[in-house]
Design brief:
Layout lengths: L5 H4 L2 H12 L2 H17 L4 H23 L12 H24 L4 H23 L6 H16 L8 H13 L5 H22 L1
Helix pairs in contact: 2-8, 3-4, 3-6, 3-7, 4-5, 4-6, 5-6, 6-7, 6-9, 7-8, 7-9, 8-9
Length: 203
């Protein structure tokens, strides 16, 4: 008699969607955009400020999610429950604000300040939508869309082609049933608008 495991019966789209969700998660995107703007614009001189952004916008929030707000497992990092997000988002916002304060105190370049401020504004804007509208907006789409908007301003409008990646990520989040299409689209629009505007004003 042949038995079929859960992994064997899992739809291929769900498997691909989960891998994409893991690879292009907010933490990884924040690390990538911090290095791209910090080191890409200022070389080794900008590495220190990039590391500050990474620590306060990615490392500390992820540590909090895993070991304080979560159950200590890597599988819990996507915060699938809206109630978890209500508790965690203010902590992430405070952490990013602390990183921004350190960057300001160490005379970080305007592009670094603008990038971190844009991250803070995006996370802060997601919270009232989550609480007041009771809407589980896609943080994946918001962070990735905002990052593309900043890179397009920092380097070239050609970076706008990166929105194809946002669309692919949106498909992934819907395929694993973590978000609806509207939640993904709303996240992408919010992140792009907020991060793009803040970066444009402060850079």
């Amino acid at each position: 008699m042949t038995t079929t495991t859960a992994a064997e019966t899992k739809p291929a789209t769900s498997t691909v969607g989960r891998k994409l969700s893991d690879w292009i998660d907010p933490k990884n995107v924040i690390i990538a955009v911090s290095l791209a703007i910090g080191c890409g614009l200022y070389g080794w001189k900008g590495l220190g400020w990039a590391v500050i952004a990474i620590i306060f916008a990615a490392v500390i929030p992820m540590t909090y999610i895993l070991y304080v707000a979560g159950d200590g497992t890597w599988a819990n990092r996507h915060l699938t429950e809206r109630q978890q997000r209500i508790t965690v988002l203010p902590v992430i916002s405070a952490s990013v604000a602390a990183g921004l304060a350190i960057e300001s105190a160490t005379n970080a370049p305007s592009e670094i300040i603008a990038m971190t401020a844009a991250m803070w504004a995006t996370i802060t804007a997601i919270w009232p939508v989550t609480v007041l509208a009771k809407y589980k907006i896609s943080v994946h789409a918001a962070v990735t869309g905002g990052s593309i908007a900043m890179l397009a301003q920092a380097y070239s409008p050609l970076w706008l082609a990166g929105f194809a990646l946002v669309a692919l990520l949106g498909w992934a989040r819907v395929s694993v049933r973590e978000h609806t299409v509207s939640q993904v689209i709303t996240g992408a629009i919010l992140g792009t608008a907020v991060a793009g505007a803040v970066y444009a004003i402060l850079q």
